[in-house]
Design a protein that fits this description.
Layout: E1 5-12, E2 18-25, E3 29-32, E4 37-40, H1 61-68, H2 76-81, H3 89-96, E5 112-116, H4 121-129, H5 137-146, E6 155-159, H6 160-169, H7 200-207
Antiparallel strand pairs: 1-2, 3-4, 5-6
């Protein structure tokens, strides 16, 4: 429908030869696949007007809004969370590590979270996602699944209450930042004070064997 259109142009090279080339023409109208109508380009908010860059399902803004507010439409954030069979990614990860709280046995995935058995959650999330994205738990769940749950990331499933109680009963040693040893200061060299010698006047008087009193 929205196939790209080209126009032929000519240009002269440095040697004087005239050569032809094709240039893509920006379309002023696009075809909406949803309502099956041809509309002006400004009706398509996400399209540039070049046929080679349009998506196969080009829809106008009106049809996009209708699809977004449809009752049976799945929100985009749920589509991203679901990898297969409509199961949220958090539930998949929790079921892999046991599916229930390790202490009290609660199995509701909304109340569960992961806890490293050595308390090094922050460290392993930094290794997986980097320092900027280590607090994005959803991305960490995706990382665990795509990397087939590596053995280094040994996690315990705890509910929120047991998570807090576990940190109170088994506090981790406080992280001490390494002491920075200041560089040694090199003492400045003392200025060498040379003894003051005779002035030019005294040298002249000494040369002629005279003193200040003879003048």
């Amino acid at each position: 429908m929205n196939a790209p259109k080209y126009e032929t142009r000519w240009k002269r090279s440095t040697t004087g030869q005239v050569r032809s080339y094709k240039r893509e023409v920006k379309l002023s109208h696009l075809h909406c696949f949803a309502c099956n109508k041809k509309k002006a380009l400004f009706r398509f908010p996400a399209e540039s007007g070049y046929g080679s860059k349009t998506t196969p399902q080009t829809a106008c803004g009106v049809c996009l809004n209708k699809r977004a507010f449809r009752k049976d439409a799945i929100p985009f954030y749920l589509k991203r969370d679901r990898l297969h069979k409509g199961i949220p990614i958090k539930q998949q990860v929790m079921s892999h590590y046991g599916g229930k709280c390790h202490i009290c046995g609660v199995s509701d995935s909304r109340m569960l979270s992961l806890y490293h058995y050595k308390g090094r959650d922050r460290h392993y999330r930094t290794v997986a996602l980097g320092s900027k994205n280590r607090n994005h738990l959803r991305n960490y769940y995706f990382w665990l699944k795509t990397h087939q749950y590596p053995s280094e990331h040994q996690q315990l499933v705890l509910c929120l209450n047991c998570h807090v109680l576990h940190e109170i009963q088994h506090p981790l040693p406080k992280h001490r930042e390494p002491t920075v040893v200041p560089p040694k200061r090199i003492p400045k060299k003392a200025k060498v004070v040379l003894p003051e010698g005779p002035t030019d006047r005294e040298k002249m008087l000494d040369m002629f064997g005279m003193t200040e009193a003879d003048l």
